[in-house]
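Q: I have 386 residues here and want to know how they pack in 3D. Can you give me a structure?
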Amino acid sequence: MINQLAASLTESISGPHAHIYIALIEGAIIALTAVASYYAMRTVETIMMYFIDKSPTKWDDDLLNTRFLKAFSQLMPAIVVAWLLPRFFSSRDLTVNWVSILTSSYILWIAVYIISVFLTNLYNAFSRRKRFRPYAVKGIFQMIRLVVYSLAVVINISLIIGRSPLSILMALGASAAVLMLVFKDTILGLVASVQLTANKMLHRGDWIVVDSHGANGEVIDISLTTVKVRNWDNSVTTIPPYSLISESFKNYQPMRRSGGRRVDRSILINAASVRFLNPDEIEALQAEGWLEGLEMSSAARQVNLHLLRRYLESYLARDPRVRHDMLMMVRQMDPTPTGLPLQLYFFTDETRWKEFETIQSDIFDHVYAVINRFGLSIYQIAAMQA
C-alpha cells in the first residue's frame, strides 16, 4: 500500500521541482501519521487508566500509572516515523540517513526512560508496602538503572558511528581496569547492598551503632553508595555500605523485636557497711514485709547484703514492667577500690527509649531508697574522705 502510494505520487506530480513536492508530501504524510498514532495512544492510555482504576488490586495502580503510559505515547510516533521513513525515501539520501539515526536514538532513549519510570514505580510500590519496606532494595534498583543507561550509551554510539555494539564493548573491555577504578565505589556499594539484603543484616528503620563513623540512630535510607543514619541528636551520618561489611556494627533491631530491653547497672556498696543486722533492724524490715518468707532466726544469720539481694530479686519479680520470661538476677560483682558492685540484671517489657529510661529510673529510685534501710551505704569518695 505504501509502495503504491509512493508510485502514485511519482506518476501524478511532474515538472522540474517534482522531487521536492513529492518529498514534502511524503514528509507530511509521515508527520500526520505520527501525530495520529500519538493521539491514538493517548486514547488507549485513557481506556487503560479506566480499567486500572476499576481493578481491585493496587499493584497495577503503582506500576502502570499516568507517567508510565504517557512515555509509551511518546514512543509510538517515533516508531511510526522509523518504520515509514525508509519506505518513502531512499536510504542513500544523507539527510534521510541522519533523520533515521536521530529517530532511532530518540526511540532508544524513550525506551530507557520507560524502563527508568517502571523501575521507579516498582521501587515506590515496594516502599508503600510494609512487608517490603525494610529491605535494602534501593541500591539494587539504582544499579539496574545504571546498567541500562550504560548499555544505552553504547548502543547510541554504535548507531552514530555505524559499528556493532559488541565491538564497542570489546574496546571498552581493554580499558576495564580504568573503569573498575572509576566505578569502584559503585561496584563495592552494589556488592555490599546485595550482602546486606541477602543476609538481612540491615533494614530501613533499624537502630544501629557504628562507632568508627560516630553513628548511633535509625537508618533512614539505604542506597547504592550511602547508608544514611539519623542520630538521636537529629544529625545525619552518611556511611559507605561496604564499610558495614568490612567493619563491625551493632544492630539493636532484634532487641526491639524481642520485646525486652536489657538493664545492666551496678550500685557501689560501701564494703565497711556489710554486717549482720540487730533484732530491731530485722523486726523493722519484717514490718515492712521486705523479709517475706524468712523467719527471724534465719534472718539473723544472714548479712544485710544478702537480705538486700533477696529483697531486690523479689521486688523485680513482682514488677509487671519487668520481663519474667527473660534472665533476671541481682548479683555481687568482684570488689573494686571504689566499692563493692551490686549488679541488677533484667529486661524491661518496653524497648522505646523514653519509656525504657522511665522504668529503669523508677526501679533504681526505689533501690537507692531502700539500701539504707538494710543498714548499707553507697560508696562515695567525697563522703569517705569526709
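Q: Anything worth noting?
A: The mean pLDDT is 80. The radius of gyration is 38 Å.
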